[in-house]
């Protein structure tokens, strides 16, 4: 997964700095993996994964028969792939860094806070989507999906903002002051329709029992603080505090310790 994250950041860095482009629609269906030998990967997965079946009415006196279920290759298999090449595709709703073509950007569950609030936005929206996707790829769950209440008390946007506040704390006043929509959601910094929240730090969630954010079983416990720091840098609520793709490529979670501690080359 680190290699996928690294290549995504390299792609975003190229788009942002070299091309002056903001993708604005980074999501799983717009990220492709190019493999040297896809048939071998699928064959290995089939060999290692038992076939799941379900009982189907056979329409006869014999009763039921077992029918194979369709399978989706899961993200943990990515770590077993060799020579992965990541491709970012579909620039149909992309914007220029210095000229936005639309403010209706990003899927709701991957939407940066500044976009929801109607505040100015830039390349940081791609970094936010990237952070959400890394959690989704690692855990297989959307981190901040948001859901409207059944009785209409709050909207999916309200719920998503509440989830963010529970993990990252109150929204910075400076960000709220820059937005065109905060009065739709907040009153004196507090959510209008969801007043009761259950705060929890990102680190405690990764070490706890919450399924969506609990650390993956194959992640060493010692790696959790570094991974959490990585996520907190790309998921900073205020885009002014969010790191760029270039900066994140130097983060300890992606850079092996041997490389970080190696002495500089002598000229």
Automatic annotation (TrEMBL):
Keyword Nucleotide-binding annotated: yes
Top-level enzyme category: transferase
Residue ranges constituting the Protein kinase domain according to the UniProt record: 1-254
Keywords for the protein's UniProt record, in alphabetical order: ATP-binding, Kinase, Nucleotide-binding, Serine/threonine-protein kinase, Transferase
BP GO terms, sorted: regulation of mRNA processing; spliceosomal complex assembly
Keyword Transferase: yes
GO cellular component, one term: cytoplasm
Alphabetical list of InterPro entries matching this protein: Kinase-like_dom_sf, Prot_kinase_dom, Ser/Thr_kinase_AS, SRPK
Pfam families on file: Pkinase
A GO term for molecular function: protein serine/threonine kinase activity
Protein name: non-specific serine/threonine protein kinase
Native species: Pseudogymnoascus verrucosus
